[in-house]
């Protein structure tokens, strides 16, 4: 089946979908994005993803491309036209097309691209093995809370992970604190049994999955706190895992050469994986 993309008002064959060479996304990474998971034909957490899109656009002063209801219509069309039962929709919004010049152009029309892809849902076999991670210096810019498409440091970090046979790269700031993964938020269970993820600040993206998993942790009455932790604490942790719209809850069993816990996914990651899987089966009331 031919894939279909939405590009600035038109639904086009994915293999022919293109934007102008002077799109400011292409020239300057002057744009923002969202990735929303689709499970059993329904969006997961679409509203908070679109709330974050509004915050990211506001932070860069890019005009919103259209009303939320119009955007939902396009998201659903892309899902249906690509027959996505399980997968993702990706949306990218840029400041638009203008002659290349650094300042914001006076008259550019916000550009919107929406694509979709199929992917089988996260397999619970991940709970048998977990994944490996490596640590890298967090040399990204200081506004990681904006879901900006300037992802070069993230790309280089993820590639370093791949080359080290690891699933994820964990960013560590100059003071030795873990910020987040190259495309995930990072969690640990300390040797004292406390579930931790870094508090929200400019050093991390406010993950929608992070927020949902925090609520699930509260429901499960886990001892949970939002505070920063060092790479050393993570390496000595009882458990570690990462979350995102595409990774859901993925247990990490090794960071660099350090084996986490007993080297197998732990009970907290398992419980949250199961709780998140159940949450996804319930779908998203707002969408
Ligand atoms: N990335 N941190 C970073 C740097 C991310 O890129 C992401 C998501 C997250 C988790 O956010 P959420 O739970 O809202 O997906 C944290 C998406 C999935 C991506 O770039 O493909």
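-> sequence recovered:
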């Amino acid at each position: 089946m031919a894939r279909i993309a939405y590009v600035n008002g038109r639904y086009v064959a994915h293999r022919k979908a293109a934007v102008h060479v002077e799109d400011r996304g292409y020239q300057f990474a002057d744009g923002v994005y969202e990735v929303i998971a689709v499970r059993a034909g329904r969006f997961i957490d679409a509203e908070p993803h679109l709330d974050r899109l509004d915050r990211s656009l506001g932070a860069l002063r890019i005009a919103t491309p259209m009303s939320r209801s119009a955007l939902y219509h396009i998201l659903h069309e892309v899902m249906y036209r690509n027959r996505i039962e399980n997968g993702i929709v990706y949306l990218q919004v840029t400041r638009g097309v203008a002659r290349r010049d650094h300042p914001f152009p006076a008259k550019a029309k916000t550009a919107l691209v929406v694509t979709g892809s199929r992917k089988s849902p996260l397999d619970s076999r991940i709970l048998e093995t977990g994944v490996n991670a490596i640590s890298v210096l967090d040399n990204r810019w200081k506004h990681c809370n904006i879901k900006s498409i300037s992802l070069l440091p993230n790309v280089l970090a993820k590639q370093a992970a791949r080359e080290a046979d690891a699933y994820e790269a964990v960013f560590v700031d100059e003071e030795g604190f873990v910020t987040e993964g190259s495309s995930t938020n990072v969690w640990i269970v300390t040797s004292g049994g406390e579930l931790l993820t870094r508090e929200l600040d400019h050093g991390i993206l406010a993950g929608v999955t992070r927020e949902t998993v925090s609520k699930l942790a509260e429901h499960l009455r886990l001892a949970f706190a939002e505070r920063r932790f060092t790479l050393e604490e993570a390496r000595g942790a009882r458990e570690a895992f990462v979350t995102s719209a595409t990774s859901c809850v993925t247990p990490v069993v090794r960071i660099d050469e350090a084996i986490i816990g007993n080297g197998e996914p732990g009970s907290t990651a398992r419980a949250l994986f199961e709780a998140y899987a159940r949450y996804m089966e319930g779908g998203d009331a707002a969408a």
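DSSP finds eight helices and 15 strands in the chain.
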